[in-house]
Amino acid sequence: MKAQGVALWLLGTALVLCSMYTHGFRRCLTSVDMHHLEECFQEIKRAVQTKDIFPNITILSTVETLRSVKPMDVCCVTKNLLEFYMDRVFKDHQELKPQILRRISSIANSFLYMQKTLQQCQVQRRCHCSEEATNATRMVHDNYDQLEVPSAATKSLGELDVFLAWIEKNHQETSPA
């Protein structure tokens, strides 16, 4: 009888832990239209990348750690990179063409929406940052800081497809909470 009780308790505990793991960040990610984001980026990509005067330097592309981010760190890295784009790249980028500005603004609005959702997750303590996650985003900031601000902003905006692909890869089966 005790063996059955222990087995049921273990099964229940395993189900609760699995549920917490699978719902941890996935419940936090909002249903952002990735197709729209990618479309906006494609419309500005050529204009932005032609302004890039350092084609052999990358800010996001070579960050191997983005590819190896653990599932438990996806929320943190996403949150940190959204902040990076909102607080630095979009603010530092100087654009004169209104049609490009509108597309950048549309992307920024989508990022703001994702940021607000992730802030709710942080309040609920479902978005923990490990040392590896913090180091990954610190490398992005360090790469950015090695260039002059206008060049770094242009380069980061031109590499936005790397971040969008990473979001899509890590949240492709996500549905709203």
TrEMBL record:
Q: Does the keyword Disulfide bond apply?
A: yes
Q: What is the predominant subcellular site recorded for this chain? A: secreted
PANTHER family noted in UniProt = INTERLEUKIN-19, INTERLEUKIN-19-RELATED
| Similarity-based family | Belongs to the IL-10 family.
Q: Can you list the disulfide-bonded cysteine pairs? A: C28-C121, C75-C127, C76-C129
Designated name of the protein: Interleukin family protein
The UniProt entry's GO CC annotations, sorted and at most eight, read: extracellular space
What is an example of a Pfam family matching this protein?
IL10
The entry's function note states: Immune regulatory cytokine.
Question: What is the annotated localization of this protein?
Answer: Secreted
Q: Where is the signal peptide?
A: 1-24
One Gene Ontology MF term: cytokine activity
Origin, by domain of life? Eukaryota
